[in-house]
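Record 1 of the preview.
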Amino acid sequence: MAEDKEKKQEIRPALTRRDFLIRSNASAVAIGVISGTGFASTLVAEPQAGAAMAAPVKTRRVTLDIDGSKEEVNVDVRESLWETMNYQMGLSNCNLGCDRAQCGACTIVVDGRAVNSCTVLSARYGRGQKILTVAGISNGPGLQGLHPLQRAFWFEGGFQCGICTRGFIMAAYPLLQANKNPTTQEIKEALAGNICRCGEYAKILNSVKKAAADLRGEKVTYTAPWITDQSNRPATAVAANGTSKQFQFVTALGTIEQFDDLSLELKQKPGILDVSGTERTITPVWDPARLDEAGVRRILAEAGHPVRP
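->
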């Protein structure tokens, strides 16, 4: 046995793997001490002097196509489409409810699909997508110019506080564009992502059904006939004898209340017969014997709200 141990000791290598690692680490530490640097500096290369560090991209310039109007804006890459429309573009075309894509109040339509504007990023929607809000589906001024969905919600009372109404209309819009004769179940499925805290679901469902019938060309009898009679009146003498044109504001108004104030102010101007519109557009009616289009544009500019050429 003693002879076997002596043989094993004789054939043992002069430098084992363990010895090599211990000695190499000790050498590296010694070099670091001598050179005045730490051990890690012998393993990690230091950045060259003067090398610029690339800053992360935080903003992006995009062109948003909203309701047929294109506008370039600088957006934070983390900014939601709702934030951009409201805070940067001054549009109040959709309401913010939960800010978590749970209530549907902020619903808009992008390329024919209903989406929650509170959770989609503006930086991803500047690539030619067509963005549609409740302000972009009407066909003209007045009650007759309302989209059948807008008119049905109004006449059928498909709302109470109104916070959710725009979202319900825009959630139903793609459905009726694709199917003008939906079943009750199909309507419920299309509106499944929207919540009405006032509980007006029966009236909302009925409003969508009436709008579908209107789109099919059927004669629709609304719950509020006195409003219907008002909407079916022939054009007034003022509108018939005047000249009208729709203009687009250079800078959109913040709220519809601002438009109401502007409308009252313009109606006091000589030659202006009537005014209608939205936060983004205005349709004045003027007396051609007293004003021309250039004069109307000048009045709007003097009021602080110039319009596009």
